[in-house]
Amino acid sequence: MILSDIKDYLQQRQQVCVSDIALHFGASVDATRGMLETWIRKGKVRRLPSMTCGSSCGKCAPEQMELYEWIAKRH
């Protein structure tokens, strides 16, 4: 997984949870967050406010509620 791969994936999907990105690239969630932080520092990605599924069952993994969005214009 390299930064440009994450860029392409986010551009195609607009908003993606961190667990989906990690699963797609076969990486850990922590490693994926690190890569996303690089794009955030560059002003290309933002983390969206945490979602809630509307249920109080507690079965939703936090990684599934952690959304990121590509905000830079395509070149």
Descriptive account of the structure:
- With about 80 residues, this protein is an alpha+beta fold.
- It has a single domain (about 5-50, about 60-70), classed as Arc Repressor Mutant, subunit A (Orthogonal Bundle), CATH 1.10.10.
- The protein has three helices and three strands; from the N terminus they run αβααββ.
- The protein has helices spanning about 5-15, 20-25, 30-40, and strands at about 15, 45, 65-70.
- The protein has a three-stranded antiparallel sheet with strand order 1-3-2.
- The longest helix is centred in the middle third of the chain and has 13 residues, at about 30-40.
- The model has no long low-confidence stretch (mean pLDDT about 85).
Task: Give descriptors for this structure.
75 residues; alpha+beta; Arc Repressor Mutant, subunit A; three-stranded antiparallel sheet
Which SSEs are present, and which pair or pack?
Blueprint lengths: L2 H11 L1 E3 H8 L3 H13 L3 E3 L19 E4 L5
Antiparallel strand pairs: 1-3, 2-3
Helix pairs in contact: 2-3
Number of domains: 1
Tell the overall outline. Answer: globular
The level 1 CATH classification is Mainly Alpha
Q: What's the CATH architecture name?
A: Orthogonal Bundle
Average of the residue pLDDT scores: 84
- The helicity comes to 40-55%
Rg measurement, Å: 12 Å
Number of strands: 3
TL;DR?
This protein has helices at residues 3-13, 18-25, 29-41, and strands spanning 15-17, 45-47, 67-70.
